[in-house]
Amino acid sequence: MHADSLGTKWVSVHGGHSGEFCHHATDSLEEILEKYVALGFLWVGISEHVPAPTPEFRYPDQVRAGLTPEFLYERFGRYMTRCRELQRIFAPRLQIFVAMESESYSGYESLMKNLITDFRPDYVVGSVHHVADLGFDYSEDQYMSTAKALGGLDSMYCRYFDLQFEMIETLKPSVVGHFDLIRLFDPDYGSRIQKPDIAWRITRNLEAVANHNLILDFNLRAFYKGANEPYVAAPILQQAAAMGISLVPGDDSHGVSQVGNFMKEGISILENAGVSTNWKMPKCFDF
User: Fold this and answer.
1) 146-199 pLDDT per residue, tens
2) For the chain, which residues make up each domain, given as ranges?
3) Comparing C-alpha atoms, which of 214, 219, 206 is closest to residue 12?
4) 114: which strand partners?
5) Are 286 and 123 in contact (CB under 8 A)?
6) Residue 175, SS3?
């Protein structure tokens, strides 16, 4: 069992994207799970992206590859089936949760309700990758284009956190994914998140997370993208810790080489912030 110098076990509440079921990931899901086992993870949540319901909500790489909404839905069904098989196969060595990562574009409420009914995941990671139905996290060009369309970065941040609040209240996902992803390509995010119009929205959303007893994904993929700190940023981490919110690492891996990346750094940050490393497990649906 892998543990850091203080004996903290490794887990991932948001991870395991694979090349089998995600066009911007690599390697097979089984290979990825074997890596989690090799690193001694206690448990892991595999949280594949939900399929785009209509062509305009596909990722740019999916568009270039000609992947249709029908194909994406069929592939997602194969993901759920395969993940359940592997959940049983790996049970003696690794506890696996079969989850899905939500979107927050127009119609997501009915989309998620139908997907939950159809596929019965263990839990949902509630994420926001679009603002006003415009993607922002695929590339810096896309990010800046969306900001311009929405009247600037401050406006985009405000609309992001408003949509996230709506998603939290609507879906009440067991895990809130990469809470401040909106900062991705903003070198001035440290000062921007302190601006009153943005800061009060962050506090409101954290209060919603606390009120519903949800988990915050302490998402380590930010390091992989070249950031100096995970999602969430230090000031938000301090607020969340003060509110007693559970923060749990998510490696958000997209291939074998990314499994467990930056876990030591992430756990050290959480320990220094006074966050419990007696990791809360996600609340699973009771079907």
Assistant:
1) 999 999 999 999 999 999 999 999 999 999 999 999 999 999 999 999 999 999
2) 11-272
3) 219
4) none
5) no
6) strand
